Amino acid sequence: MTPLLENKTALVVGASRGIGLAIARELAHSGASTILASRNLAALKKEAQALTAAGHRATALQWDVSDRDAAPLLPDVDILVNVAGANIRKPFEQYTMDEIRSIVEINLFGLAAVTHRVGGRMKERGSGGKIIFIGSMMSLLGLPFLTAYAMSKSALAGLTRSLAAEWGRHNIQVNCIAPGFILTDLNRAMWQAPEMEHWRAGAQANPRMGTPEDVAPLAAFLSGPGSDYITGQIIAVDGGYSTTAVWPFEP
Questions:
Q1: pLDDT of 23-50, one tens digit each?
Q2: 95 counts as catalytic
Q3: Does the global pTM surpass 0.90?
């Protein structure tokens, strides 16, 4: 069978680790010529070489989305996956304005700039395309001590819907994945506390912690032809956290 994404070029921004890396691997395994982009060129080269050695098509590209002057040369891209992000957890009144600006700069303005460039080129080409933002539960609801992050991720949800409306006539589908509690290097320490594990077990239908590999298949689906009539959606991958709760009652 022909791989789902054969003859497609995918750009994954924020692909050096975690969810971004899992998505890049999934897209490469699905046949796409995959560009892994982030600030960490050494990590990208290692992963791209491993994918190439396994018979897939992958290249590494250094790109710091917070640097407005960074404009690496790119081929025409059919699939853009925006993953890059940053976070600081603290009470709102303890944030400095510089910390808020830094988080929003990376999570929102940086990805908007990438999409402005790559998505704009998709529109000019007239061949359609797929754009996927990696949002968060904070794109859908609120949790404490994440206000700066929530500002940026909520804005990504709005950007998704508006771009979907604007570019739909050009056969460009724009969607946002909202991962729930996914264990990565960025949050591993937070989940070491036993009370966090106990709380999560009662907070969602599937009590286990999520992994980046739980998110990647949806990104691959949204990158392929099966999602041609899906656009403007914020889709949670969260074990049911945003829609369910459990209790100890047994009938």
A1: 999 999 999 999 999 999 999 999 999 9
A2: no
A3: yes
